[in-house]
Specification:
Elements lengths: L1 E6 L3 E13 L3 E12 L10 H14 L5 E12 L5 E6 L5 E4 L4 E5 L2 E7 L11 E7 L5 E6 L4 E4 L2 E3 L4 E5 L4 E4 L15 E5 L5 E4 L14
Protein name: AIM24 family protein
Pfam families: AIM24 (PF01987)
């Protein structure tokens, strides 16, 4: 079994033996004996072949199909991605976390990996789908990246869909604050929000926004 920890904010360190999963190319160093192989279909070993093919198709169609590798061995494995900050999320039994695919770095074999529809990203770069990690085994852990130090909020809260990274619990609702000023370029620029209304959950955002997908203005 592997345990994740953060080293100097920018590196995820996996220590132990067995196997875990990480995005392809995440390794920057290791001490021990490791092998890595790209996952062709599915990380969920108990799923049928048909189920694995359907899972792969869903990830490809939704744009959440980040290349994943299975890392096996024993020792210490160092991972990073573009010097982004690292956070480790430890899930409770049965708990799920929605994660933007581009921000998913690694997860232990106690997590079931899939995709879910949230239907709230028509305007923003958030997208209408997100990766989903569900705790199914012992000590499930997920490593994520943020562009800058993460901002950790407890729900209920409202966040910018272009800054959200991940959340636990129920998916958010989408709210638009659009009026005539939006169409003449006089809006505040904060017209679209994700609302998390289920108390006691956690939302992580980054202090950096993705570029929004729609810009309307009349000069």
């Amino acid at each position: 079994m592997f345990n994740f920890k953060v080293h100097q904010e920018l590196t995820c360190v996996a220590e132990g033996d067995g196997h875990f999963f990480a995005r392809v190319g995440a390794m920057v160093a290791n001490k021990g004996s490791f092998t890595a192989e790209k996952v062709l279909l599915d990380t969920n070993q108990n799923r049928s072949l048909l189920g694995s093919v359907m899972s792969l198709a869903a990830r490809k169609l939704t744009g959440e199909n980040i290349p994943i590798m299975k890392v096996s061995g024993k020792g210490t494995y160092y991972m990073a991605n573009k010097a982004h900050h690292i956070s480790i999320i430890k899930l409770q039994p049965g708990q799920s976390v929605g994660v933007e695919g581009e921000n998913l770095l690694a997860f232990t074999d106690g997590c079931k990996y899939g995709v879910r529809f949230i239907g709230s990203g028509v305007i923003s770069q958030k997208g209408m789908f997100t990766s989903k990690l569900t705790a199914t085994g012992n000590d499930p852990q997920v490593a994520i990246t943020t562009n800058g130090n993460p901002i950790i909020l407890e729900t209920p809260c409202v966040v910018d869909p272009d800054a959200v990274i991940c959340w636990t619990g129920a998916d958010p609702s989408f709210r638009a604050d659009v009026n005539w000023k939006t169409f003449i370029g006089q809006s505040s620029g904060e017209s679209y929000f994700l609302e998390f209304n289920n108390p006691g959950e956690v939302v992580i955002v980054q202090p950096s926004e993705r570029i929004s997908g729609l810009e309307i203005a009349i000069d």
